[in-house]
Amino acid sequence: MRVLGVDPGLTRCGIGAVEGRPGAPLKLVAVGVVRTSADDELGARLVGIERGIEQWLDEVRPDAVAVERVFAQHNVRTVMGTAQAAGIALLCASRRGLPVALHTPSEVKAAITGSGTADKKQIGTMVTRLLRLAEMPKPADAADALALAICHVWRGGSQNRLAEALAKASRGRAS
């Protein structure tokens, strides 16, 4: 199963893809960020995020997409921007008929580190180990996107099997 993880944000939207299945070693497919300028107007930034995610979907061709579930923070402006970027990721994946899962930050932290309160450095360290990378993915948004993808591979259960079957069927029709 190939999963694209999206750590939504207006300035830096982390994107990372892994391939694997529960109980087997994971493989890094790609990792990076979609960036927009804080100086641009909101509409232009959302279009930039959409273009970036669409390009990643074209290149990575995931079987499923995992997006961080937006949670209430103290800064309403930050929450709104994060929610808008998450909505773009959901739209792009859904437009292609890809299964989309939302995972909370604490769920991802617990899956990756064993602790739902792990900090960014702990997540980055475990992502580096799990994917057998020479160095930690940077920025942290990219490592968080990989953590989302890993969490989904491990915890997707029946959703993973269904997504795999659908992806194989659609690839068969495209040939």
Automatic annotation (TrEMBL):
Subcellular location as annotated: Cytoplasm
UniProt entry tagged with the keyword Nuclease: yes
CDD domains with a match to the protein in the record: RuvC
Positions bound to Mg(2+) 2: 68
Stated role: The RuvA-RuvB-RuvC complex processes Holliday junction (HJ) DNA during genetic recombination and DNA repair. Endonuclease that resolves HJ intermediates. Cleaves cruciform DNA by making single-stranded nicks across the HJ at symmetrical positions within the homologous arms, yielding a 5'-phosphate and a 3'-hydroxyl group; requires a central core of homology in the junction. The consensus cleavage sequence is 5'-(A/T)TT(C/G)-3'. Cleavage occurs on the 3'-side of the TT dinucleotide at the point of strand exchange.
Subunit structure as annotated in this protein's UniProt entry: Homodimer which binds Holliday junction (HJ) DNA. The HJ becomes 2-fold symmetrical on binding to RuvC with unstacked arms; it has a different conformation from HJ DNA in complex with RuvA. In the full resolvosome a probable DNA-RuvA(4)-RuvB(12)-RuvC(2) complex forms which resolves the HJ.
Organism listed in the record: Nonomuraea dietziae
Cofactor(s) annotated in UniProt: Mg(2+)
Listed SUPFAM superfamilies: Ribonuclease H-like (SSF53098)
Cofactor: how and how many bound: Binds 2 Mg(2+) ion per subunit.
A GO MF label: magnesium ion binding
Main location: cytoplasm
Presence of keyword Lipoprotein: no
Key words of the record: Cytoplasm, DNA damage, DNA recombination, DNA repair, DNA-binding, Endonuclease, Hydrolase, Magnesium, Metal-binding, Nuclease
Name of the protein in its database record: Crossover junction endodeoxyribonuclease RuvC
Gene: ruvC
Segments crossing the lipid bilayer: none
Enzyme nomenclature, EC number: 3.1.21.10
